[in-house]
Amino acid sequence: MTDPTPGAAPALRRLLDLLASGAATEDFAGVLADARLRGEPADVLAEIDDATWLALRVHRTLRQHRRREAELTALFDTAGDLAASRDLDDVLQAIVRRARMLLGTDTAYLTLPDEAAGDTYMRVTDGSVSALFQNLRLSLGDGLGGLVAQSARPYATPDYRTDGRFHHTGQIDAGVLDEGLVAIIGVPLLLGGRVIGVLFAADRSPRAFSPDEVALLCSLAAHAAIALDTAKSLADTRAALESLNSANAVIRAHSAAVQRAEQAHDRLTDLVLRGAEVADVAAEVAALLDGGIAVHDADGNALAGPAGGVEGLAEAVAVSRAEGRAVRRGDAWVCVVLAGQEPLGSLVLSGRPGLDDADRRLFERAGVVTALLLLLRRSVAETENRVRGELLADLLTAPDRDPVGLVARGRRLGVDLGRPHLVLVAEAAGPAARGRLAGAAGRYLFGSRGVSAEHGENVVLLLPDDGSASPGEAAEQAAERLARLTGVPVTVGAGRSAAGPLALAAAHAEGVRCVRALRVLGRDGDGASAQALGFLGVLLGDGHNVGGFVGATLGPLLDYDTRRGTELVRTLRAYFDSGSSLTRAKDELHVHVNTVVQRLDRIEALLGRDWNQPERSLELQLALRLQLLADG
């Protein structure tokens, strides 16, 4: 940026003061208005206008960071409340209060089943003003809460009154109307695969809840389930002490096991609060359970712990997720790591073929703590990726505007643009699929030094080139993984490895042409590099009808081969590939030279006497090449 003009300097200082003081957004516009009142020249006004826009971007970014920091702080405080409190009412009230604060809703509440009455009731509320709503009782299966309890999955509605997915009853609708609620989200409290309650957050105006908000509420629900489980264990222990004097020794052992589990949970929670890494949590759990602990991500890749995996790990994780608890596989135990209904990975405990209930619960709680840690790491990674994504967008938009500045800016963000990188261009059909693709790209790059950003109609991924895979292999891997994450076919094109803003922008252009070529060839959902497609990557990027061209050029031969079972197309390809040599063609086809001559005569009869002229020959060779690539 050039030095500011003398007339703009006071305004720029004022903008910096506003940023430093955390002023409201509206205050920034006043700087330009004051400059106009002073009658500043047009060039000064333009410079102040640009500076105001940049200041607002910084202001918005800082506000987003403060919001994320507030959310994480509240989540840590909740974990601290759980670790410090032993009173069930206090714990549940803290969870509901934090749920309301984290999501910024008007109300939050928690319902529990009443097994004696056969219905559910309001256990805790926060922000409620309606006595009718606070004393509401729901029959099993009714309302949004009934759907959550039946399916054991989170559900959200932007307008409960008009949503037909739920079984509406007069009593429930009257309570919701009296409270004035409109938008409602509910998540299950799961214990051993069983729904033991539902945690809700609600607004008195229409609102769409984001996936991050759903995940945060699910984490709080997991803590609530643990609190209820612990309270139940303590209640069982007290009842046993009162009624079974003869089993005093057994009760003491059980109480000690529960206390050990609580202490272990406190120690693990303290690790998370102190910013520990996954390996630190794994080491602590291994010490508590006197065994080996390995942590794997959702794809089964090792994140921490001893090398080597469990045979059939994916199947064991699926069973653990279905049952909601740790399962045994051979001499090892496997526990899924969940954030709500989303699997983040798994824990594998080795060296403990026998595991009593207390240690099994401790192992399962370690999975909850690991889920919280991975979720926090992913939230931080997504925030960093958004900031780096702005760098990538600027790089692709105007790489020649300030190459040196882009490289310096990248170093500050941990991205060395001076080193070789691979540029992948990913595309999925439809606006909704593109939105899912952007989020999937962030999850695909989680744990790496890669960067992703939406650019135009595509999502662009920038990966450091460590030489482990060629551009084509990287594109194929990305297409396969992104398709699994999004649930729709994803086409990925890769440019050549490049370093520096200008070269990276050129590689992006290659990747775009490669994606277009793959679409023209009918290879949607595939991945390839521009280098692998050769000149076709440039030729086919404009939307030509490849199928129509091949059919029009080779149609008579294709029809003849289909009807007669002959190999005229293969013979023509061998003839051209051998440099129009009958001898080399017959060797490649493993037939007599007279057979080649007879087939070429038939080709001439079907295509015309000019089939071997230069212009027609080029057209035929191109069609043969396109057919081969499309089939490949």
Automatic annotation (TrEMBL):
<dbReference type="InterPro" id="IPR029016">
    <property type="entry name" value="GAF-like_dom_sf"/>
</dbReference>
<dbReference type="InterPro" id="IPR041522">
    <property type="entry name" value="CdaR_GGDEF"/>
</dbReference>
<dbReference type="InterPro" id="IPR025736">
    <property type="entry name" value="PucR_C-HTH_dom"/>
</dbReference>
<dbReference type="InterPro" id="IPR003018">
    <property type="entry name" value="GAF"/>
</dbReference>
<feature type="domain" description="GAF">
    <location>
        <begin position="87"/>
        <end position="238"/>
    </location>
</feature>
<dbReference type="Pfam" id="PF17853">
    <property type="entry name" value="GGDEF_2"/>
</dbReference>
<dbReference type="InterPro" id="IPR042070">
    <property type="entry name" value="PucR_C-HTH_sf"/>
</dbReference>
<comment type="similarity">
    <text>Belongs to the CdaR family.</text>
</comment>
<dbReference type="Pfam" id="PF01590">
    <property type="entry name" value="GAF"/>
</dbReference>
<dbReference type="Pfam" id="PF13556">
    <property type="entry name" value="HTH_30"/>
</dbReference>
<protein>
    <submittedName>
        <fullName>Helix-turn-helix domain-containing protein</fullName>
    </submittedName>
</protein>
<dbReference type="InterPro" id="IPR051448">
    <property type="entry name" value="CdaR-like_regulators"/>
</dbReference>
